[in-house]
Amino acid sequence: xxxxxxxxxxxxxxxxxxxxxxxxxxxxxxxxxxxxxxxxxxxxxxxxxxxxxxxxxxxxxxxxxxxxxxxxxxxxxxxxxxxxxxxxxxxxxxxxxxxxxxxxxxxxxxxxxxxxxxxxxxxxxxxxxxxxxxxxxxxxxxxxxxxxxxxxxxxxxxxxxxxxxxxxxxxxxxxxxxxxxxxxxxxxxxxxxxxxxxxxxxxxxxxxxxxxxxxxxxxxxxxxxxxxxxxxxxxxxxxxxxxxxxxxxxxxxxxxxxxxxxxxxxxxxxxxxxxxxxxxxxxxxxxxxxxxxxxxxxxxxxxxxxxxxxxxxxxxxxxxxxxxxxxxxxxxxxxxxxxxxxxxxxxxxxxxxxxxxxxxxxxxxxxxxxxxxxxxxxxxxxxxxxxxxxxxxxxxxxxxxxxxxxxxxxxxxxxxxxxxxxxxxxxxxxxxxxxxxxxxxxxxxxxxxxxxxxxxxxxxxxxxxxxxxxxxxxxxxxxxxxxxxxxxxxxxxxxxxxxxxxxxxxxxxxxxxxxxxxxxxxxxxxxxxxxxxxxxxxxxxxxxxxxxxxxxxxxxxxxxxxxxxxxxxxxxxxxxxxxxxxxxxxxxxxxxxxxxxxxxxxxxxxxxxxxxxxxxxxxxxxxxxxxxxxxxxxxxxxxxxxxxxxxxxxxxxxxxxxxxxxxxxxxxxxxxxxxxxxxxxxxxxxxxxxxxxxxxxxxxxxxxxxxxxxxxxx
Length: 714
Ligand code: 3H9
Description:
This protein has about 725 residues and is of the alpha/beta class. The chain folds into four domains: about 5-275, 2-enoyl-CoA Hydratase, Chain A, domain 1, CATH 3.90.226.10; about 280-305 and about 615-714, N-(1-d-carboxylethyl)-l-norvaline Dehydrogenase, domain 2, CATH 1.10.1040; about 310-490, Rossmann fold (3-Layer(aba) Sandwich); about 515-610, N-(1-d-carboxylethyl)-l-norvaline Dehydrogenase, domain 2, CATH 1.10.1040. The strands form four sheets. The protein has an eight-stranded mixed sheet, sandwiched between helices. The chain has a six-stranded mixed sheet with strand order 1-2-3-4-6-8, with helices on both faces. The chain has a two-stranded parallel sheet with strand order 5-7. A hairpin with a 2-residue loop joins strand 1 and strand 2 (about 25-30). The longest helix has 21 residues, at about 615-635. Bound molecules: (S)-3-Hydroxyhexanoyl-CoA. (S)-3-Hydroxyhexanoyl-CoA binds near residues 76, 138 and 147.
């Protein structure tokens, strides 16, 4: 993102980000680089200088490092990656700490992640307070721990635990870190300075010696360590799903097993640079910042959210129940309303089914389920929603039905209640205009299953007030969703773009590629499933209903592929009917190729007068992505998405786009916009109606700019 290296303490404050002062024989080193004490160049320089001072000052007997504010250290400054490196490098700072001739203590509170944990592991003694979050999450950025984490963590915690931490990137608490041998002491309280000073006093009283992690004995049983690593390597090869850095982590730990410490560090550095140079690093770091930038929308910056403590859900079908579960999981009380006793019983059963599944798998106790369900109320009367702060309507996707529900909500809900509609396509301005309080109406487009899928499109109709939008963003965060602001249009951001690239896939199918080849090409790209598998999973009848609804307004000159209709006419709706594009014998979830589907495709080609031609997987990908990016550009151009990064986050969290590619707009930037535009212009020769270059794409190419230039933070 930002091409500028973050300046610590930018602005009027000129306090250096690392300060030291003597407290008796202890040199207290304080890192203060808000918001999370990332290890930018000034922090690295400060730490190096502090260690030099400790060595030089005979009155210093021990060094205590701690973080000011809410973190110990959240890691390397991610904004520096991809920039020319500036000395000192973090591994050198870590080595200086470890080589210090006086004991160094790290007092950890809050996040101690990545390079932050590596600093702590280079210290000689570690204390962590409750609430600490320790981890080596570099894998999530396409990296490996590059400041000795791959060499020191296995020596302290053993291969298995260390590699598991590095491959999962998960954060662990102080207690678990102590069990693993990564910290020596779990302290009490919330102040790392006072806890650290008390620990330092103890160590000084015991004349505790310097004790270096590079000499720790975790790899002493070489054969056992190698056997553990071999098993992890085999597992990682199977599970790393196209990711680059997991195998590099294994290689780095192999070096820890085989090489003396300093040579292992060199090997780790080489592997780290391979990760830095990989496009996956660029994609994942883009995703990291984009996921945070999506929260920065004008309404949420201009207004405070309305308080919300209670939630109503209208509709107990799959969507309504999923939304209710999501809210119950977040600790909110939920009142669900359905039209009659039978429907509300079904609604309740749909909610309970989710928790019963967890209980059956041993992931929830029956008591915990009962406690959650105690917050659920079912009712057949709208009056039950009179006092709730926020209502989400999740009834049948039809304007008349939705308006009838909103009329009821308008009648019963208290003034100031937020009235949200969970629609995928419908015009929310029209819904808002039908009530007496359009300023309270907002769209919340959940994705199915709503308790699992992270994406939440927050659709902003013309008359909504800013605090309602801010409330929607606050709700999304409470529900642990990733919210994206969208404007009103048919399909909002995600489904609108989907309709276009899905049509491109249908065109390719009719022109000669099989659905199986198209799916394979997209799985090779990194999607967990191809578009035809997704259609079988979602149910072909859903798309069929939409196509029928749109039939009347479809441009008769636009190309329309009828293969999906032929399949649906046979009642083949995908997994739930045992066949769709694929065959699912005996309820199987993985489909098999279906020769009858291929025969239908052939017949449709013939009917349309098309002589099939061969497609390479590369061409399939180019067409699919060109269609997606072009419509993404239209969506940004028309203000439906605020920035290209909002399109990226939508696709990563709602449509299975591989996160390590950053999102479609980031991918387009990496391919180069002139290339994408040239593809579209070439395809337009066959079908100028479908392939119309987006004005935004044309403009950016003419200016030599990219999508990143429209993301304020880049
Ligand atoms: C590494 O360490 C490599 C080394 O092994 C080797 C090097 C040679 N840098 O998430 P939040 C910003 S790789 C720069 O909203 P929270 C973030 O963008 C690094 N900026 O807060 C946001 O900015 P803004 C390994 C960072 O409380 C603000 O801080 N470390 C960094 O929900 C607040 O963040 C990681 O991967 C950073 N490292 O969560 C940890 N971290 O306000 C990444 C955060 O402008 N960070 N920012 O939007 C996190 O997981 C979470 O931010 C954290 C706090 C848990 C720390």
